[in-house]
Design brief:
69% of the residues lie in helices and 2% in strands. Strand 1 and strand 2 form a beta hairpin. The longest helix is centred in the middle third of the chain and has 76 residues.
Length: 169
């Protein structure tokens, strides 16, 4: 059934049918051109909407999802089940908190062991640097001695030698 046919069957404007379809989010088929297609079920639904609006209800007060014939759960039974669920939720939250604490503790221990390993490595590197510095110092000292051995020594000159240099041309 098209929108125009539906509106004629109910006695409202076609735009009213379109507005109700969108407002109440009524599930219906749509053609490729974007036109709504309705069934007999939709006709009964729109008649209900029109009847309730004619009774003075506002659109936001109309409930299309009423459950008819569905038995309700007694309040005491509902509250007992709710209390049981809350206890279970509390137990799960406690387990979750414990698990989270365990994970954090494990991570801290792991980080601590990694830091200890890094400190050992830094100590080893310091020892190696000191060893290399000592070798370089002794090597430098030996080079200095070798250079001093190959450097010609000054010859001591007596006082006459200096005196002679005064008269040399």
């Amino acid at each position: 059934m098209k929108t125009k046919e539906m509106s004629e069957a109910i006695g409202v404007n076609p735009t009213t049918i379109q507005r109700w379809t969108k407002y109440f989010k009524i599930d219906c088929d749509v053609t490729e051109q974007g036109h709504f297609l309705y069934t007999e079920k939709h006709l009964q639904l729109f008649k209900k909407i029109k009847r309730e609006l004619d009774e003075g209800k506002r659109m936001k007060d109309i409930n299309l999802n009423e459950r008819q014939g569905v038995p309700s759960v007694p309040t005491k039974q509902y509250e007992a089940k709710l209390e049981k669920m809350l206890v279970q939720v509390d137990a799960l939250e406690e387990k979750l908190a414990t698990k989270a604490d365990d994970v954090v503790s494990y991570q801290l221990l792991k980080h601590r062991s990694e830091l200890d390993e890094m400190m050992k490595l830094v100590g080893t590197l310091e020892d190696r640097l000191l060893f290399i510095e000592k070798r370089m110092m002794s090597h430098h000292h030996q080079e200095k001695q070798v250079v001093n051995e190959h450097t010609p020594k000054k010859i001591k000159r007596g006082p006459w030698r200096s005196f002679m240099n005064l008269f040399a041309f």
